[in-house]
Amino acid sequence: MKTNHLNVVIAGGGSTYTPGIVQAMISSRDRFPFSSLTLYDIDEARNDDMFEIIRYMLKKEALSKEVALYQTTDAQEAFTGADFIFSQLRVGGMKMRELDEKIPMKHGLVGQETCGLGGFSYGLRSIKGLLEIVSYVNQYAPDAWLLNYTNPETLVSEAVRRAFPEVKMLNACDMTISIEETIAANYGYDRKNWVPMYYGLNHFGWYTSIYDKSVDRDVLPEILERLEQERLHVADFNAGDDTWQEAWDMMRLMTKNFPGYLPNNYLEYYLYPNRTIEHTNPNYTRANIVMDGREKNTKEMARKVREQEEGEILDFNFGEHGQYIMDMAASILNDNHDRFMLIVPNKGAIPNLRDDAMVEVPAYVGRTGAEPISLRFAINDFHKGLMEAQNAAEKLLVDAYFEHSYQKALQAFTLNQTVYSADPAKQILDDFIKANGDYWPELN
Ligand code: G6P
Ligand code: MN
Fold first, then answer.
1. Distance from the CA of 21 to the center of ligand 2, in angstroms?
2. What ligand 1 atom has the least distance to the C-alpha of 151?
3. Would the CB of 342 count as within 6 Å of ligand 1?
4. Does ligand 1 have an atom closer than 6 angstroms to the CB of 151?
């Protein structure tokens, strides 16, 4: 494996998350020496905005000579010679995210980008887009490592496992890191000392312990106690973002009613769909907030860079997202065996769950890829029942994708844990078929 002069590709280069990834790459150059960065996106205008922003960042860090920066909409050009590919597609962009969120709400159900039926709509689009990327990697850079952030993670990783079982790919989500960072910032811990135990599906799991090496004990019981007493506030990296404040408040409600475990905040959509519907404006959802916030800011940044405006141009806090993907890449490269939460085929990691479920558990990462841990205990019936039903729904949806089966899609929609009746399931499925058009596979 090449360990120097690495060529890195960001697939979905135009994403507002790209500056955060590049920032982390720049500060990690000693352990991840890259010499070229290619932004690949099918949206040329967005990719070009990002190209200008990243060029500016490299210049500010005096790296313009050491790092060659490219942008392209051509897959062959992008992936040929790549060593690492970071994939963060959003097929259909924010406009389609808006529909994923709004259509289910019209029928009285949860409207969310990765959970519930919005997540299933996004899933069928995303599988198509990500399989395309994986096929390019297979063709043009078969030895490269693909680090995937593309949502909805369980669905896309299940599809890739079926279509390309041999690809060198890690599937990761930053939500557990955000939860840990937020708790650490609120209650005065340092996450770097933590060895957490966690299991679930993506955006659908629970912490059972958090061993803190600095004090040599499990600190989860005291964290749960504090959650009972004190509100958890939005950490700096999500400052001013009320949606996250609601999410943390819901997390506290879950720990109150189902004590003993720290749940992933996304479980609110499955356990309290009524409440999440109540606190979401059906005409102005998260997609609108992101479009009017992060997306506009990024466009504005690109304009400032183009017009060579003076003053502070990069004006947002990037958070942990980029650092997480960077740490993972460095752990592969340097064979560090650092520990991350990854989405992997179960294969006994959760002993009493089917082997072929895609689960999210801790894993050690090195040159040979991910080595997931085994829990060595059976999970309880409450979590198991929820996971099995949701997992079956997700499996059915991936079946629907490959078999072009309307019936399987309807079964998946009906079984989704946010759905109370096959009536809205069918209406929403039919609405989504129209709304997604060619983004979706044909269903017969
Ligand atoms: C977390 C999740 C991601 C999700 C993101 C949405 O980071 O882990 O899977 O995409 O939140 O954030 P946004 O600001 O776009 O709503
Ligand atoms: Mn995620």
1. 15
2. 9
3. no
4. yes
Q: What is the CA radius of gyration of the chain?
A: 21
**What 3-state DSSP class applies to 9?**
strand
Question: Which DSSP helix (H) or strand (E) runs through 252?
Answer: helix 242-257
Which amino acid does the sequence have at 240?
G
Phi and psi (nearest 5°) for 91? -65, 125
Structural domains in the chain, sorted by start:
6-171 (3.40.50.720)
**Rounded to two decimals, what is the model's pTM?**
0.97
Q: What is the pLDDT of residue 240?
A: 74
Torsional sign, CA 116, 121, 123, 126: negative
Residues 6+ apart with CB under 8 A from 215: 193
Assess whether the C-beta atom of 125 lies below 6 angstroms from ligand 1.
Answer: no
Residue 262's alpha-carbon distances to 160, 197, 203, in angstroms, are 30, 10, 13
Q: What is the pLDDT of residue 124?
A: 98
Ligand 1 center from residue 126 Cα (angstroms): 15
Residue 279's contacts (CB-CB under 8 Å, 6 or more residues apart) are 246
- pLDDT of the residue at 317: 67
Distance CA 306, CA 322 (A): 24
| Residues lower than pLDDT 50 in the chain | none
| Cβ partners under 8 Å of residue 53, min gap 6 | 18, 19, 298, 301, 302, 305, 314
